[in-house]
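Check out a protein:
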Amino acid sequence: MTIAYLPGPPDDVPPYEPWAGEPEVLAEAAAAGRRAAAWIRSLPAPPAPSPAGTWIAGALPEVVEAATASLDPAQCDRMGPAGRLIEGNAGVDAGTTSTLAIVPCVLSDADWLTPDQHLRLLAVASVVTGIARLLADDPGTAILHGQVTRMCATLDHATRPDTPGLAPEFEHTL
């Protein structure tokens, strides 16, 4: 009896080929992140210095900018050499993702901000995390079908200074 082994994985991985429109989409995401970070920096400071105020004014905008500037569709979900799934991060490291995940916890200490500002900060953290996850899960669909572009538009809308606040009848729900 003859045993024939299947060929192993190739020693070299084929080079990544960017999707059509990828550079423009990534530039748009980086620009939206810079605008969102500028909006976060423009938020009012707390009446007295506080750790939450320092974090919102310093670390959070830096993380938003870093996340949107480091997006890399080549770092997407893929199969490893042993057939195991390697979860991609779209270029956003675990520390950045972790920082974005604690926004809801920090906002509980940010009582000087309005409910509208709380919602907008939550939206920023969610959208930035969502863009990275979209690119990690399926970069082709996210880029070619305009999902990243729509998420950038949502980010811009959430941080637009002239966006009206909550309707008065909903203010009490927060």
DSSP finds eight helices and two strands in the chain. The CA atoms of residues 108 and 118 lie 9 Å apart. The two ends are 73 Å apart (CA to CA).
